Amino acid sequence: HISTSAGLEQLCQQRGWWDGEGPFDWKRALSSGGGHASLGVCGREKAGQQHLATMAAAAAAGELGAGDARGWLERMAAVLRDETSGICFRDLHGFTSTGSQLSWIPPPGEQASHLFTCASDPVETSYKRFAFPTAAA
């Protein structure tokens, strides 16, 4: 038996996200139920895969360059704000996504950028850049 928050398994059964058979699987419970169930099993992952394929096609067509940090970050922000697929939840299943993070990891020698939403609704808030100190030698 795995450790879960008190009442989580019962809540998932009550809401029809888990049938109570077999080991409890949080990922499967969220992926199979709710508003994004029409996308099929693992609907959020499938939608994410489609978003990434679209970005890869744009890169292959020369519409999105490998070093275009702004272009990649804007497209990833749109993915993370996708409510239709269930990637971003706004009161889906009784709770809301509480934040979102984007990171641009460039080649060695260039500075990485990390951006976070700093509010409880990633759809409505902007991303803010955070700088992390480099390790002292």
TrEMBL record:
GO terms for biological process: proteolysis. InterPro entries: Peptidase_C69 (IPR005322). GO terms for molecular function: cysteine-type exopeptidase activity; dipeptidase activity. Belongs to the peptidase C69 family. Secernin subfamily. This is Uncharacterized protein. It comes from Phaeocystis antarctica.
